[in-house]
UniProtKB/TrEMBL annotation:
Keywords: Lyase, NAD. Residues 2-322 form the NAD(P)-binding domain. This is dTDP-glucose 4,6-dehydratase. GO terms for biological process: nucleotide-sugar metabolic process. The lineage of its organism: Bacteria, Pseudomonadati, Pseudomonadota, Betaproteobacteria, Burkholderiales. It comes from Cupriavidus necator (strain ATCC 17699 / DSM 428 / KCTC 22496 / NCIMB 10442 / H16 / Stanier 337) (Ralstonia eutropha). One of its GO terms (molecular function) is dTDP-glucose 4,6-dehydratase activity. The gene is rfbB2. Belongs to the NAD(P)-dependent epimerase/dehydratase family. dTDP-glucose dehydratase subfamily. The keyword NAD applies. Pfam families: GDP_Man_Dehyd. It catalyses: dTDP-alpha-D-glucose = dTDP-4-dehydro-6-deoxy-alpha-D-glucose + H2O. Its cofactor is NAD(+).
Amino acid sequence: MLVTGGAGFIGANFVLNWLSQDGTDGIINVDKLTYAGNRNTLASLGGNARHIFSQTDICDRAALDKLFAAHQPRAVVHFAAESHVDRSIHDPAEFIQTNIVGTFNLLEAARTYWGGLDAAAKAAFRFLHVSTDEVFGSLGPGDPQFSETTAYRPNSPYSASKAASDHLVRAYHHTYGLPVLTTHCSNNYGPYHFPEKLIPLMMTNALAGRSLPIYGDGLNVRDWLYVGDHCAAICAVLARGRVGETYNVGGWNEKTNLDVVHTLCDLLDELRRKAIGSYRDQITFVKDRPGHDRRYAIDAHKLERELGWKPAETLETGLRKTVQWYLDNQAWVRNATSGDYRNWMANQYAE
Ligand code: NAD
Ligand code: TYD
């Protein structure tokens, strides 16, 4: 199986979960290793013959063609992307390049390879595109959750670039018959999450004694999904999803950012008590993100009804596991937060 972005947060969790199961296919892991890609996350796979890593940019068509020809994958699972909304606001160009042009290149390489397969291999082939709920835009407090038929209304350069990639994937099915599947997941959290996103950033700052910067009034709502549950959903869609269909993946965990940060602080107070006071004392309210989407919420009934998938974790159980993982893996965090990360933090939170 060819996995793109398998050194990033969700991709690496997927690769580790997949290879920990007996009898699963080997993985060719294609990742450019941007600031968000981290080979330390994959360290436990050292010497595992079922994992081959290739440092490759998905915008490099010739390199992709070689990988398809050499490894003859039966499926592609496409995670590679620029994924951070705040970065897309500062510098959208890379988002257009990787998320749109890169996905186009990957589709073209997959289409060429797939076109040369025999009838049985062609029918069995799958191209699974990992997208986001952010393509659907922002909900008001009383609006129904996003379903698979909700209209696209992306609001950030990130979500617009993901929306464009979704349209390409859809078109490759309708025009060429490429057997595609698309998933739209809500905000993930869990081990190996790069500390620029809300949950790992708050934990990292809390433990370092820095302030916990909440954008705006902190009442924006996200629907949190434990990364292990997301990986299980992808496995289900890959194995049994109907070709050409889209599936929403959510945790049924709508919470305001302030609620999430309070819960994190309370868990840290319990598991790593400070000498004086609570981690909640470090919370500060900072200038809001431009165009900040107010609420995301996923209706994941289709996935449950058709494929029998349900999340195993509640936000409370998943966050407890996640906080414990970060406390136990400070060396990974130190490694991930060296270098460029410091410049990003200094610029993004300067005000
Ligand atoms: P991430 O930023 O942690 O990892 C992205 C990975 O892609 C990194 O390893 C990076 O090196 C690699 N990459 C970037 N550009 C590349 C290129 N041009 N060629 C090859 N590799 C490249 O992202 P993530 O959080 O793991 O997200 C994975 C996917 O899931 C993305 O497509 C994202 O849009 C989607 N998604 C994520 C979330 C979330 O909460 N994290 C929610 C919804 C959807
Ligand atoms: P983020 O993890 O960047 O994911 P997304 O923007 O893709 O949903 O942000 C989650 C929420 O947390 C979002 O409403 C923005 C907010 N947020 C803060 O309040 N402070 C921060 O420092 C960050 C990074 C995010």
